[in-house]
Amino acid sequence: MSLAELKSQLPEYAKDLRLNLESVLGENGAPGLTQSQIAVIALASAIASRHVPFTASMAAWASEHADEDALRGARAAAAIMGMNNIYYRFLHLVGNDEYATLRAGLRMNVMSNPGGSKIDFELASLAVSAINGCGACLESHEKTLRKHEVGAQAIQSTARIAAVVHGVAVALEQAEAAAPPQAAAAA
């Protein structure tokens, strides 16, 4: 299903999300980012939001705006942050500094060679970390991006894309849950 078809399934109460999605996916709606970066961030955000039909539609849309290496980096960011966000959020929230002194023992090699641009990978990692609510990872990726001279507007645009994509995934899931079963609708 195309992204346009999926957007049309958003209920009226999610009209703002539909309009915001159209905005943030356009180059003018995400200041500081290229169209390829927008695609990478949106795909990683959709994966992190875990709505399979929306993710498939977003992947098809993203493939029109970014090359396969960049999209591989988006998938890598979503996967590795799915692990890291849980682990580092645990370290932050548990309130016991002893755990931070212990070796994590988790493989994270993809972070040094994600495929595609390291900056794009960091932007995607920031977006996924925002969705997953890991303050430690957000802080780390934001500092890395700023060290590489990525501006505040690009970082804010990344957070806006993550927020909108996640909101759309939630609204689609709610709409599906509220829809009558197909058998009952046919009767």
UniProtKB/TrEMBL annotation:
<dbReference type="InterPro" id="IPR029032">
    <property type="entry name" value="AhpD-like"/>
</dbReference>
<dbReference type="InterPro" id="IPR004674">
    <property type="entry name" value="AhpD"/>
</dbReference>
<comment type="similarity">
    <text>Belongs to the AhpD family.</text>
</comment>
<dbReference type="GO" id="GO:0015036">
    <property type="term" value="F:disulfide oxidoreductase activity"/>
</dbReference>
<keyword id="KW-0575">Peroxidase</keyword>
<dbReference type="GO" id="GO:0051920">
    <property type="term" value="F:peroxiredoxin activity"/>
</dbReference>
<dbReference type="Pfam" id="PF02627">
    <property type="entry name" value="CMD"/>
</dbReference>
<dbReference type="InterPro" id="IPR003779">
    <property type="entry name" value="CMD-like"/>
</dbReference>
<protein>
    <recommendedName>
        <fullName>Alkyl hydroperoxide reductase AhpD</fullName>
        <ecNumber>1.11.1.28</ecNumber>
    </recommendedName>
</protein>
<feature type="domain" description="Carboxymuconolactone decarboxylase-like">
    <location>
        <begin position="98"/>
        <end position="178"/>
    </location>
</feature>
<keyword id="KW-0676">Redox-active center</keyword>
<feature type="disulfide bond">
    <location>
        <begin position="134"/>
        <end position="137"/>
    </location>
</feature>
<keyword id="KW-0560">Oxidoreductase</keyword>
<comment type="function">
    <text>Antioxidant protein with alkyl hydroperoxidase activity. Required for the reduction of the AhpC active site cysteine residues and for the regeneration of the AhpC enzyme activity.</text>
</comment>
<dbReference type="InterPro" id="IPR004675">
    <property type="entry name" value="AhpD_core"/>
</dbReference>
<keyword id="KW-1015">Disulfide bond</keyword>
<dbReference type="GO" id="GO:0006979">
    <property type="term" value="P:response to oxidative stress"/>
</dbReference>
<keyword id="KW-0049">Antioxidant</keyword>
<feature type="active site" description="Cysteine sulfenic acid (-SOH) intermediate">
    <location>
        <position position="137"/>
    </location>
</feature>
<dbReference type="GO" id="GO:0032843">
    <property type="term" value="F:hydroperoxide reductase activity"/>
</dbReference>
<feature type="active site" description="Proton donor">
    <location>
        <position position="134"/>
    </location>
</feature>
<dbReference type="GO" id="GO:0045454">
    <property type="term" value="P:cell redox homeostasis"/>
</dbReference>
